[in-house]
Design goal:
Elements (H helix, E strand, L loop, with lengths): L6 H17 L5 E5 L5 H9 L4 E6 L4 H11 L7 E2 L14 E5 L7 H14 L6 E5 L10 H13 L8 H10 L2 E9 L3 E8 L8
Parallel strand pairs: 1-2, 1-4, 2-3, 4-5
Antiparallel strand pairs: 5-7, 6-7
């Protein structure tokens, strides 16, 4: 059904969904950044029918994503072409933003642009839900994450796993604060960020 099928996305979709559901109870529109094959978009949209799940992908990959979503026969809006580095995004306001395994596959200036863009479009009280592997205090949390970092840097020397403290500092500069850090299988985490003015922070 899916072109560029991701076994990892298939494995992790159930535990991610279990973590997402209570966080999205009051949301109505979610923007997914870097939807890739669309497997998460299809699974989550089917399981959370009260949401309008808006998938997006870099312009270079949005056509392939559109083909996948159309073939899934799940009512989803057409995916958006989104380059996070642009000052104007194709959405102006959403209740939540979700991104899985994206920040280690983009250079740091793009990570900065992603957080700045999310801060612009995320409605007050809404979460930025960032899933993936992250370093702590400059250290890898598993051998698997070390290998993943090497793989990412092999694609581009500016890619690689991001350190949680660096992300917190970056987020603070655009007014976002880490509110929850949920442990998920295979040394992954779901980081929940909200506008600092609306939430108390904690780990």
């Amino acid at each position: 059904m899916f072109q560029d099928f991701s076994p990892a996305a298939e494995r992790n979709k159930a535990p991610i969904l279990a973590a997402l559901e209570p966080l999205l109870e009051s949301a109505r529109e979610v923007l997914e950044i870097g939807a890739g094959s669309g497997q998460h978009a299809c699974h989550f949209a089917a399981a959370l029918p009260w949401l309008r799940w808006q998938a997006s992908e870099h312009p270079a990959g949005v056509v392939a994503l559109a083909v996948n979503l159309a073939g899934a026969h799940i009512p989803l809006p057409a995916p958006l072409a989104l380059d996070v580095r642009l000052k104007t995004w194709p959405v102006t306001a959403v209740d939540a933003v979700y991104a899985a395994n994206v920040v280690h596959c983009m250079p740091w200036p793009a990570v900065e642009a992603l957080f700045a863009g999310v801060a612009r479009v995320l409605r007050a009280g809404g979460p930025l839900l960032l899933y993936g592997p992250f370093n702590r205090d400059g250290r890898f949390t598993s051998e698997g994450n070390l290998r993943l970092d090497a793989w990412a840097r092999g694609l581009d020397p500016d890619f690689g796993l991001r350190d949680l403290a660096e992300l917190e500092a970056l987020a603070a500069r655009v007014g976002l604060a880490l509110c929850e850090n949920l442990a998920l299988p295979a040394n992954n985490q779901l980081l929940v960020w909200r506008h600092a003015s609306t939430q108390k922070t904690g780990r």
